Amino acid sequence: MKRFTFCLLAAALMAFTAVSCSDDDPYIDEPGNEEGPVYQESTVGLFVLNSGKMGNNNAALTYYDMTTKQVSTGVFEIANGKKLGDTGNSMVVYGNKMYIAVTNSAMIFVTDLKGNLLKEITVAGESANMSPRQLAKVNGKVYVSFMEGYVGAIDTANFSVKTVKVGPMPEGMAYSNKKVYVANSDGYNWPYGTTVSVIDPTSFTVTKTLEVSNNPQTLHVAANNTLYLICWGDYGEVPAKLQKINTSNDLVTTVEDVVPTNMTVGKDGIAYILSSVYDADWNQTITYYTFDTAKGKIIGEFVSSADVPDGYCISADDLTGNVYIGASDYVSNGDVYIITPDGQIINKFDTGAMNPIAICPIRK
Q1: For the whole model, what pTM was predicted?
Q2: Among 98, 176, 194, 204, which residue is least crowded by beta carbons within 10 Å?
Q3: Confidence class of residue 4 from pLDDT cuts 50, 70 and 90?
Q4: Which fold has domain 3-363?
């Protein structure tokens, strides 16, 4: 029997989901949108969100300068005189702002592209402020999933938030074919959730619920109105699966022979998949491979786990084509590897904090 996980399986119910900052939540230029990223000629740096260790209030922000190769640690704390909080979980860059979801602190921070705090956003729940999980950027808004079963839309002009009830413990989101899709993991209730909610962003209502495999986690945009959905299974009898959602008719199919933990879609429809597998004796095997989303087939190994051990998150830069892999042993500081599309390691740097979970390229 094999078991699949992304973080320590002992903490599976609070598993952290890494989200790409560029490829999986593309900016859609539609009427009424007043803010969006300006894609310029070069990637000048990387912001790294380190989730820290749950309960230790040690989430942190790191910046890597592509030109000087200088690493700046503790960026948020230095800039603002306060800690980032407990359990950073997701980060997106949208326009000239960053949005950072800190789950256990029940806080979304909005900063400029130097980490200076612009706004703190909290959203009240039934008994306390709700806990943000994942972020996605769509048409002048930043969407956020809340552990309590809601999705919020943050207006990037005035930072107001409206919410809609979806499935239990939603995680990743993606926009395709004028619809927002939300993975409902139901991570507190074994054998976990099996649904994806479909939201009309105009009316901000749930219009449909799709049946998928166990424990849906992240959604990734590919060509031809297709989404790829990673489901982690039940860490036992039900394995992790990669599924496709045709957003024209919302038909869900399973991709065979793919065991995903996380993925990112890069240039030309090539996906880079991180697969973390545990056997019955809790021995872990990590594999990185490429997957052609147009042909629906595995191409081959991307980079060896001997060269990039302890993979924790993966993200592709849609400008340079480079792939960024965050590595963590859950004990010491994490590392980030910068890798060319053909698997050549360009550089590696220590993030100065634990568990790098999101990597966002900054352009100039």
Answers
A1: 0.91
A2: 204
A3: very low
A4: Methylamine Dehydrogenase; Chain H (2.130.10)
